[in-house]
Amino acid sequence: MTGRGMGVHSDFDAIVIGAGLAGSSMAAVLAEKGWRTLLIDRNSSPRHKACGEFLSPEAAALWRSLGLDSRIAGLGGANIDSLLLTAAEGSSLEVPLPAPALGISRYRLDSALQEAAVYHGAELVHGCSVLQIRPKRNGYEVDIRGKSERTSIEARTVFGCWGRNAASSYAKQSRLPRSKADKPLCIGIKVHVEGLPQCSRVELYFFQGGYIGLSPVEEGRHNLAALVSGAFFDRCGRNTAGVLSEACRQNPALALRLEGGATVPGTEAGAYPVLVSKHTTAWGDVPHVGDAARVIPPLCGDGMAMALRSVAMCVELADRYLCGELSLEHWKKRYIRQMRRHGAGPAAWGRLLETVLCHPALSQAALRLGARMPGVAARLFRATRQ
């Protein structure tokens, strides 16, 4: 019963907070395993999100391991087989992907995953915020608020899947403070574009102040995603049109690529601030999954695969805990250890590459070097993966 109101059962085996990619996948797998699962989202329905909408080759195996591959295969995503990097002065480098990737909008992907959760037996509640989570002897009590009512629900387990920028007051309190070493605040912008020539590659265009990614998605459209500094965004009038105009002025190859294209109304989305994690926060009062645990540099292009990996790790341990095979303390220690072991290397390489490629002189030299030494470029690409 997708989108039902507050008329839910009073107790569950699992409550999943956040119905994005990580949360909906978690709820679908838990429900498929037979656990009474409640999936809560503060939004009234699926929505467009600031995201590169690129499912890396690594994601395919994870979909299969979670039993969700058939759902994804039927969504009409665009096949992607290479990556093209273009510096502001025109130097470029194309790197083949080690295996096919997929371009698909978050709107369609999140909708399908929520439907999968409901299909397997999870209850889905839209338009509700989590106010408080109180530990109890054998689980938790969760206070949630809808548009006109407030209620408390008990569960044996609770999962924080609220994404990179927690909206609820509880999620903000649960997450540990960011490191002071985090990079300056950035803004993420996304919009779909139609009318562009089709190709099977992800394209990244760099300029002073950020970069823009262009990736094919379903229905012959392209997803345009920008990551820019706050100073650049201010100079551009704090709007998408201004960002695109200045980016095209600095990078003529981008201007040429976007000729004849038109943005699709209703597909624009933004994210502020885009904070990249220095450390993993795998557990607060409850386990954190997906971007709630770690946000990697968007340039890595592996954020959704890393979110799915955290789902796979957490759901296996959670299932053993619910079956009585694992104590809560052992679950917590193992999950924290596994999450710390994954992602640190790719995140560090992603931060380094962002710094180099967003600097005009350095990006020109790096791409020319990569063109002369393709083996090095391929190894650097692999370094940003898990």
TrEMBL record:
GO molecular function, one example?
FAD binding
What PANTHER family does the annotation carry? Answer: CONDITIONED MEDIUM FACTOR RECEPTOR 1, GERANYLGERANYL DIPHOSPHATE REDUCTASE
| InterPro entries on file | FAD-bd, FAD/NAD-bd_sf, Geranylgeranyl_reductase
This protein's superkingdom? Bacteria
Q: Which organism is it from?
A: Cohnella pontilimi
Signal sequence extent = none
Q: What does UniProt list as this organism's lineage? A: Bacteria, Bacillati, Bacillota, Bacilli, Bacillales
Protein name, UniProt field:
NAD(P)/FAD-dependent oxidoreductase
The FAD-binding domain, residue ranges: 12-310
A Pfam family recorded for this sequence: FAD_binding_3
